[in-house]
Amino acid sequence: MKLLIKLFIFSIITFFFTSCKEKKDDQIKKVTIENVSPISPMERVLEANNPLLKRVLDSAADYEVQIMFTEIKRNHNNVTFKDYKFHVNDSNYFYPASSVKLPIAVLALEKLNKDKRFTINTPFYIEGDSVETTFKDEINKIFAVSDNEAYNRLFEYLGKDYINKTLKEKGLTSVQINHRLATDNAYEIENKPLIFITKDTLTEIVGSINTPIDTLKIENLKKGKGYMENDSIINEPMDFCLKNYLPVSTLHNIMKRIIFPENFSPEEQFNLATSDREFLLKSMSTLPKNQGYDSEEYHDSYVKFFMYGDKKEDIPDSLKIYNKVGFAYGYLTDCSYIHDTKNNIEFIITATIHVNKNQIYNDGIYEYDKVGIPFLAELGRQFYKTQTLTN
């Protein structure tokens, strides 16, 4: 009998201590889970220890890397953004190259919409130019192969002062588009007239005389230790104080306004006709081969650096990349809205990197294919991967 009583008491004590321990373990687990902060997409990418990223990120300041990433969350008809930044600094100058063509294309469409006399299909030519074209053709060339002459024609239509004034009115204050690209009259302040052809009638849009170019007043405008000029080397830093200025944050916010206009006030939006916006989006995402370019020379990723820039394979139809790149003077920049319609993944990413190891400009010796493009391609893939984890 005494033995049975002892066994009964022992079982009660054992049950009590086991139960308490389980409750305590439960509480520890609960506290541990609740106290763990979620890892942001930017942290996941920066800590990925990927060799293509690591060799650059370990010397991020030397490569002048800046990255901005936006997570997009949809709730019924509402869209919200969550931004992440790495070394983004509007005051730290980098050369934007052809990425300036993005705001110029959308502003040209907006100005056409305001004018009402012409459409994207109205033929026109620049005074003194033998090429007759349309805004539709020029904008398609800008996004398919980053055509400089197409940009210059739109620049003539808009003018420097109009471009900068209009962007600032939309809340895009950190920007200064000063010049044409790859032409002898790049810094000419007078814009040539455009002649539009409507029903055999010529209508001239008078050119404008713009104010003199203001020198930029931000950091790191003098770059490198020398540059080539007329086949000779000039042994002093190259001065970018009169060059175009389009920082990562401004470029990124232009993309937001294009893709998600309803998230901005009417004053901040680009005022586009519905058909023109649909055309713009199609043009931004269309591949060179679909615009009639030879796919051997102009592969799918010719001007799409994120995810596919280091490959020549076809980009799947379900993956739409709405973007604009820039590359010159060793700077590589891409601003993209990437939408995987098959897996319901979407995000905006903008990044820039500088690859000019010898610090000489205009010599054509840059590490685009060896370092820059592989970095941007892998960066895109890693950010895409972070979004597969949250879906």
Give the helix/strand layout.
Blueprint: H1 2-35, H2 41-46, H3 51-57, E1 66-75, E2 78-86, H4 101-115, E3 124-126, H5 135-145, H6 148-158, H7 160-169, E4 194-198, E5 201-205, E6 222-223, E7 226-229, E8 232-234, E9 238-239, H8 248-259, H9 274-285, E10 319-328, E11 331-340, E12 345-354, E13 360-361, H10 368-390
Helix pairs in contact: 4-5, 4-6, 5-6, 5-9
What are the main properties of this structure?
beta-lactamase activity; Beta-lactam_cat; Beta-lactamase class A; 19% strand; 10 helices; 3-stranded antiparallel β-sheet; 391 residues; Beta-lactam/transpept-like; disordered N terminus; Beta-lactamase; globular; alpha+beta; single chain
Describe the structure.
- This protein has 391 residues and is of the alpha+beta class.
- It folds into 2 domains: 1-36; 37-390, 3-Layer(aba) Sandwich (Beta-lactamase).
- It is 36% helix and 19% strand.
- The chain contains 10 helices and 13 strands.
- It has helices at 2-35, 41-46, 51-57, 101-115, 135-145, 148-158, 160-169, 248-259, 274-285, 368-390, and strands spanning 66-75, 78-86, 124-126, 194-198, 201-205, 222-223, 226-229, 232-234, 238-239, 319-328, 331-340, 345-354, 360-361.
- The chain is globular.
- The model is unreliable at 1-10 and 12-36 (pLDDT under 50).
